[in-house]
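Duplicate of #3305? Posting structure anyway:
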């Protein structure tokens, strides 16, 4: 299960998405989130889903990797769908049992909500973590938040902290997997028994995991100090971020999507 969590992993490549400016990717994600959560028509949801598939194809990320990224959120998807089916009312009653009433409108709304979550995960992972290196992501966040430095906010430290946290997610997952394998070899059982028993069985995992995380953080801090690292003003960069024609075309295309969605919401019937 832990090996299925691909958050924070970077897959090098030479696709169009890989070559986009990371600042454009972050702004694009904001535009896509607005488009996804303002969609109210079937045409709007179809546009969002088609765009998600198109981004996967352009990025050349294998579809199996995308499916692995969705596995950890299956429980959240199932819970969201069940909650929407049970709490959404309508005119067409499908199932009535005791206090449970399931309407056709509730089923449709549950499916559309699941589609929203799936599209959000795909677009975020494909545009940000899978196709953007941690260094480029740090520079992009720092550049976008640079106006906040005028009011003495530690912009560079914040962007570096975000990037390091994202980068260390796969490392900590691998460490957790190794600790679990070692504990299982000693006879630990994490899969059977009551819920409380399984929670208590996680304690031998959490303690060495926290120790390992603090040790890695201390080693990273020492390495940065030994290299006389200092961020912010005066820091040079190996790769200078520069917008190109493809960046402007890409962001212009995505900037039109919220307006197209507004047109659909205005002139087409709502899905539910």
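Output from current build:
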């Amino acid at each position: 299960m832990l090996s299925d969590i691909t958050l924070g992993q970077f897959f090098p490549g030479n696709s169009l998405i890989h070559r986009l400016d990371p600042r454009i990717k972050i702004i694009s994600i904001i535009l896509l989130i607005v488009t996804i959560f303002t969609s109210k028509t079937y045409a709007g949801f179809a546009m969002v889903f088609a765009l998600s598939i198109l981004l996967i194809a352009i990025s050349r990320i294998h579809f199996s990797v995308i499916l692995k990224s969705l596995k950890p959120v299956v429980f959240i998807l199932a819970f969201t769908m069940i909650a929407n089916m049970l709490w959404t009312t309508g005119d067409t009653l499908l199932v009535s049992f005791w206090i449970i009433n399931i309407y056709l409108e509730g089923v449709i709304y549950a499916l559309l909500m699941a589609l929203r979550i799936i599209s959000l995960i795909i677009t975020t992972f494909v545009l940000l973590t899978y196709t953007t290196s941690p260094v480029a992501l740090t520079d992009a966040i720092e550049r976008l938040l640079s106006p906040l430095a005028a009011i003495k906010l530690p912009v560079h430290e914040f962007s570096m902290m975000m990037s390091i946290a994202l980068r260390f997610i796969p490392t900590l997952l691998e460490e957790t997997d190794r600790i679990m394998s070692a504990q299982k070899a000693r006879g630990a059982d994490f899969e059977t028994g009551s819920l409380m028993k399984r929670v208590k069985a996680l304690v031998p995992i959490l303690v060495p995991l926290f120790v390992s995380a603090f040790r890695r953080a201390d080693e990273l801090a020492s390495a940065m100090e030994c290299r006389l690292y200092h961020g912010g003003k005066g820091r040079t960069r190996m790769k200078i971020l520069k917008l190109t024609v493809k960046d402007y075309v890409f962001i212009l295309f995505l900037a039109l999507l919220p307006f197209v969605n507004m047109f659909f919401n205005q002139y087409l019937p709502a899905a539910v």
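Confirmed duplicate; merging threads. The chain has two domains: 1-132+242-272, 156-239. The radius of gyration is 23 Å.
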